[in-house]
Amino acid sequence: MTISRESIEALRLMGLTDYETQSYVALTSLISANAAEISLTANVPRSKVYQVLKKLESKGFIEMSRGKPLQFTVIPPHEVFKKSRDHIKDTMEQAEAELNLIYESQIPQVPAPIWLLHGPEKIVNKEIEIISRAKESLFIMGGLMFPEEPDMIKTALEKPINKGVSIKMLTAPSCHIDNVEVLTQKILKDLPIEIKFFPVPFIKLIVRDKKEMMIAFCKLSGNNALSETAIAIWNQYQEFVDTISGIYDFMWNTNYFNQDFQPNF
User: Of 6, 53, 94, 207, which one is least surrounded by beta carbons within 10 A?
Assistant: First the structure.
């Protein structure tokens, strides 16, 4: 039975060799069979098929019934994939946490911790990365929002919300970028955080734990932002971050931004 290259690659990512992949694919169509039948269907040499099947059993892809001849039964793919997916997810999260500790401990050691980021993709990815590192507080100003970014922020904020991070967001109800209207308020209004909607300028700002910040902006054409010109400054200079945090606190607490604002949608 032929399957797509993507499915074969997925099985390899789950730790199967070529012969193991061929045998498992064959057994998903046979459901239950002996070694000779699997060898023929999978095109795996008889001299190797028993060793391959024992490996598949040890990895949790098939079951073996004692008897003569030995009978092998496939474990349903949805069970196998769920188990492997959970294992891969746990392994990756553990690796991510370990490497992030190294990364975060070394960033302050860099002589000049200021970087320029160009383009929406790099800017949004860095924003999500900063959000994921929050331990105490997040200040976000969203006057500039790229298409699909509010949904990504909403998902990324789940982790700090569950950790009890203090989150304040001051954002425009919508943003016109590349002649597309991004309905920020419609997507983010139900988040369980402190959030205010007001037509703030076309600027993106995020401050994490008063230790790290990024500010982004781009050129405008009338009331429309041009994403291809987007640029961001990301840094961890404590004095700079303290200054920006103070400005944000002032903006958040001023009565000007406490006025009721009713968007047009």
Answer: 6
**pLDDT tens-digit profile of 185-198?**
999 999 999 998 98
pLDDT tens readout for residues 196-221: 898 888 999 999 988 888 999 999 99
**Which DSSP category does 211 fall into?**
T
- Helix and strand tally (H, E) in the chain? 10, 14
Count Cβ atoms below 10 Å from residue 265 Cβ, excluding itself. 9
Phi, psi of 229 (to 5 degrees): -100, 5
Residue partners of 238: CB distance under 8 A and separation at least 6: 211
Domains of the chain as residue ranges with CATH: 5-75 (1.10.10.10), 113-258 (3.30.870.10)
Which residue shows structure tokens 């239950």? 32
**Rounded distance between C-alpha atoms, residue 152 and residue 121, angstroms:** 12
3-state secondary structure of 233: strand
